[in-house]
Design a protein that fits this description.
CBS-domain; Aspartate Aminotransferase, domain 2; 485 residues; elongated; four-stranded antiparallel β-sheet; seven-stranded mixed β-sheet; 35% helix; binds pyridoxal-5'-phosphate; 3 domains; alpha/beta
C-alpha cells in the first residue's frame, strides 16, 4: 500500500516546509490541503525552484505560489479514464474523493505499457560493444565472437559452441550439417514457433507434426513413437516456454530407431532436465538470442554439440562451406550465418549475468504463483518432477467457466490496462504456410492450449511489484469487481 501522507502538506506551510518534504524523496510532488483536508493545489520540485528564482522568501506561505490549476481524477473512474488523463501530460495523477481529499496518486511509470518481454542491458554490454567498435573488428572475425562462444561453452559443461546469426540459422545448420535433406522426415511438436518447422523445409526435408502433452506442453512421447516411419531421420524436441521435454523417453526412442535428436533450446537456456542443462542431452542443442530470450544479442544463435563431424560441418556451412584450413576452397554449398563481433560483445556481457537473470526469473515465477494460484479458473504452468523449467514466458491457461470470461476477453482487458500478453503458440499443422504438406492427424492438446493459454510479462528486469499489480488486476477481473479500484 502506498503511503500518500508523505505527499501531503497544509496550505499554511512555508516554502521551506515543502522543500523539506520534497527532500524526503516523495516523487517530487507535494499536494497542499486546507484545514478540512481538501486538496487546493500542488507544488513540484520545479514549482519550488521557479518560486525561489522569482525571489520568494523561504518562509513565505506556500499558498501564494502553489499550482492551483492541476489535473486530477475522482476516485472510482474506470482505469482507462485515469490513463487517458495521464498520457503524455503528467507523471502523477492525484485521485480525489468526493470531499476533495487525496486518496491515491497514480504514477505514470506504474502505468506505463508493460511489454510481455524486454531485454535487460545493464551489465558490460555498452563497454564491450564500445571496445569492439574501437577495435574496428566489428564483423565475425574479432575477438568477441570467440570470447562469447567460450563463455557459452563453459556454461554448458565445455560443449563446443559455435555462434550463428539467429536461432533459426542454428537449427538450419544443425539439420544440414547432419545430412538431413530431401526424402527425410523430422519430427517436430505441433506447438512451437514456426522456425522449428521452417528449417526442416529449408533443409529439403518434411516436418512431421506431433501433438504435445498437457502434462508438460512438449512432445508427447507416445505419439512421437507412433509417428516414426522409415523416412524419419531426426527428432526436434522443443523445450517450449522453458519447460524441458521428456528427454529420457525421447533419447530411448531415438536410440531404438537410430535417430538424431536436435534440441530446440531457443526458449530454454538454463533449464534443466534431471539436473542436466537442456541442449546437452540430445546430439545437438540450438539456442536463440532474439531480444525476448533469456540472454540476447539482438539477433543471434548458438549450436552446441560434442559430435566432431557435425561441429566441423556447422563451422564450414555457416561460412560459405569454406574449408577450415584452406581459404576460398568451398567444400559445401554453404551460407553466411555468422554472428558479428558487436553482437557477440553484447552476448558476452549477457552471459556474465546469466545466473542473476535466472534467479530473478525464479522470483518472478514465485510471485506469479502466489498471486494467481488461488484465482478460480487459472491453471498455472506445469511443474514436472526432476525438471527445472526457466518459465521463459510465464504462461497460464484459463478455464473460462470458472474464471468467468474467455482467454481472449482477459487479454483484451489486459491490453486496456496496458499490460501486454500473448496467446499460447498456435498449432502449426493448420498454418497456411504448410498447406502443401497436407498434414493428417489430430492435435487436440495443441489446439486447446492455443485457445485457452496466454503468456504474461516475463523479463530479466521486471519488478516483482509490477507482477503483484498484474496478479491483483487479474484477481479483480475474476471477482467481477471493478478493475478500476
Ligand atoms: C522455439 C523456437 N525455435 C526457434 C526460434 C527461432 O529463433 P530466432 O528468432 O533467433 O531465429 C524461436 C524464436 O523466436 C523459438 O521460440
Amino acid at each position: 500500500m502506498k503511503d500518500i501522507s508523505k505527499n501531503l502538506c497544509s496550505v499554511e506551510c512555508s516554502i521551506r516546509d515543502v522543500m523539506e518534504s520534497l527532500n524526503k524523496g516523495v516523487n517530487g510532488i507535494i499536494f497542499l490541503h486546507d484545514n478540512n483536508g481538501v486538496v487546493k493545489g500542488l507544488m513540484t520540485d520545479g514549482d519550488v525552484r521557479r518560486a525561489i528564482l522569482k525571489g520568494a522568501p523561504l518562509e513565505d506561505k506556500v499558498r501564494k505560489y502553489m499550482n492551483t490549476d492541476f489535473i486530477y481524477a475522482l476516485e472510482g473512474l474506470p482505469r482507462n479514464e485515469y490513463l487517458k488523463k495521464i498520457q503524455g501530460k503528467i507523471l502523477q495523477l492525484p485521485i480525489l474523493n468526493e470531499q476533495g481529499h487525496l486518496v491515491d496518486i497514480l504514477f505514470f511509470k506504474e502505468n506505463a505499457f508493460l511489454p510481455v518481454s524486454s531485454p535487460s542491458l545493464c551489465g558490460n554490454e555498452l563497454k564491450y560493444i564500445t571496445d569492439c567498435v574501437l577495435s574496428s573488428w566489428i564483423s565475425s572475425q574479432g575477438a568477441y565472437v570467440k570470447k562469447f562462444e567460450k563463455k557459452f561453452s563453459e556454461y554448458h559443461y565445455d560443449y563446443p559452441a559455435l555462434s550463428t546469426s539467429s536461432g533459426t540459422a542454428a537449427l538450419h545448420l544443425a539439420l544440414v550439417a547432419s545430412g538431413i535433406g530431401p526424402g527425410d522426415e523430422v519430427i517436430v511438436p505441433d506447438s512451437t514457433f514456426a522456425a522449428s518447422a521452417n528449417v526442416v523445409i529449408h533443409a529439403g526435408a518434411r516436418p512431421v507434426f506431433v501433438d504435445i502433452s498437457e502434462d508438460h506442453w512438449t512432445l508427447n512421447p507416445e505419439l512421437l513413437q507412433k509417428a516414426i516411419t522409415p523416412r524419419t531421420k531426426a527428432i526436434m524436441p522443443v523445450h517450449l516456454y522453458g519447460q524441458p521435454a521428456c528427454m529420457d523417453e525421447i533419447m530411448s526412442i531415438a536410440e531404438e530407431h537410430n535417430l538424431l535428436v536436435i534440441e530446440d533450446c531457443a526458449e530454454s537456456l538454463g533449464a534443466r532436465y534431471k539436473g542436466r542443462l537442456t541442449g546437452t542431452i540430445g546430439h545437438i542443442g540450438c539456442f536463440s538470442f532474439f531480444s525476448n530470450k533469456v540472454i540476447t544479442t539482438g539477433e543471434g544463435g548458438m549450436v552446441i554439440t560434442k559430435r566432431k563431424d557435425i561441429l566441423q560441418r556447422v563451422s564450414q556451412l555457416r561460412d560459405h562451406g569454406m574449408s577450415l584450413t584452406e581459404r576460398y576452397r568451398h567444400e559445401y554449398v554453404g551460407f553466411n550465418y555468422r554472428l558479428t563481433g558487436m553482437q557477440a560483445a553484447v552476448g558476452l556481457a549477457q552471459m556474465e549475468q546469466i545466473d542473476s537473470f535466472l534467479s530473478h526469473r525464479q522470483k518472478i515465477v514465485m510471485e506469479y504463483e502466489s498471486g494467481l494460484k488461488d484465482i478460480p479458473g487459472i491453471i498455472l504452468p506445469p511443474r514436472q518432477e526432476e525438471t527445472d523449467s526457466i518459465f521463459w514466458l510465464y504462461t497460464i491457461l484459463i478455464d473460462e467457466i470458472k474464471f468467468g470470461m474467455t482467454r481472449d476477453t482477459l487479454m483484451s482487458h489486459l491490453k486496456n490496462a496496458r499490460i501486454d500478453s500473448r496467446p499460447f503458440f498456435p498449432p502449426l499443422h493448420g498454418q497456411p504456410a504448410y498447406k502443401t504438406l497436407a498434414v493428417e492427424g489430430d492435435f487436440p492438446v495443441a489446439i486447446k492450449l492455443h485457445e485457452v493459454g496466454l503468456s504474461l510479462p516475463t523479463a530479466n528486469n521486471l519488478s516483482l511489484e509490477r507482477i503483484k499489480s498484474v496478479c491483483s488486476y487479474i484477481k479483480k477481473l475474476q471477482q467481477g469487481r471493478s478493475v478500476d479500484e
